[in-house]
């Protein structure tokens, strides 16, 4: 099972939702993300939020769909997205995609990226997608990466401390047993030269970003 969560980030930053047409996925909406889904004709399986980002007429229209809802007060210790993600993790899916979580307020965007840690802890693949990027975290070990022509740039960044033993094969700029400290831009804008490549590392947490211009 795949769960796709759409939050209320700027609509112009969202990936094209038609890319997911025909997929067997459970949709969830967070705050204004519910409004975006319904506008696209996608009925979410459940919705989350305090809905402070929709006006009264939009909220009334959303309520007409009688969606299963988890509503929260605006004053709480977790964001609406984190609460939705906790629900999604509890469903034990194979993958969770987070959409509409970049752009807008920088504090929210940075916190949303940090939420990817919950996936590593639970052993569930979580990725952030927007119109220009795909973001994921990797634990130490060997990994295979597939070329995606529409996301030609591949960048590796240390996430919460230095990464040790980073080795890249099948890339334009290969590496062997490289130490990657926090603040390094060494691994920005690499490219795969074949349909697939590999990366491996021995310590730390690595953030993988696929991007296009």
UniProtKB/TrEMBL annotation:
GO BP terms: thiamine diphosphate biosynthetic process; thiamine metabolic process
GO molecular function (one): kinase activity
Domain of life: Bacteria
InterPro entries: Thi_PPkinase, Thiamin_PyroPKinase_B1-bd, TPK, TPK_B1-bd_sf, TPK_catalytic, TPK_catalytic_sf
Pfam families assigned to the protein according to its UniProt record, in alphabetical order: TPK_B1_binding, TPK_catalytic
Domain Thiamin pyrophosphokinase thiamin-binding: 141-207
Cited SMART domains: TPK_B1_binding
Its EC number(s): 2.7.6.2
Keyword Transferase: yes
Keywords linked to the UniProt accession: ATP-binding, Kinase, Nucleotide-binding, Transferase
Record bears the keyword Translocase: no
Listed CDD domains: TPK
Name of the featured protein: Thiamine diphosphokinase
């Amino acid at each position: 099972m795949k769960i796709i969560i759409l939050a209320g980030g700027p609509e112009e930053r969202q990936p094209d939702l038609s890319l997911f047409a025909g997929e067997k996925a459970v949709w969830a909406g967070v705050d204004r993300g519910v409004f975006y889904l319904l506008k696209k004709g996608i009925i979410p399986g459940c919705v989350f939020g305090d809905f402070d980002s929709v006006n009264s007429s939009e909220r009334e229209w959303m309520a007409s769909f009688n969606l299963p809802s988890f509503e929260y007060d605006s004053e709480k210790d977790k964001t609406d997205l984190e609460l939705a993600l906790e629900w999604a993790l509890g469903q034990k899916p194979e993958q969770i995609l987070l959409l509409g979580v970049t752009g807008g307020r920088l504090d929210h965007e940075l916190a949303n990226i940090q939420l990817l840690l919950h996936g590593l802890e639970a052993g569930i693949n979580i990725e952030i997608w927007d119109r220009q990027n795909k973001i994921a975290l990797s634990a130490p070990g060997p990994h295979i990466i597939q070329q995606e022509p529409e996301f030609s740039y591949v960048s590796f960044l240390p996430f919460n401390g230095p990464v040790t033993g980073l080795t890249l094969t099948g890339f334009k700029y290969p590496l062997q047993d490289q130490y990657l400290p926090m603040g390094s831009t060494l691994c920005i804008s690499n490219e795969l030269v074949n349909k697939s490549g590999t990366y491996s590392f021995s310590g730390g947490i690595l953030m993988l970003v696929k991007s296009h211009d």
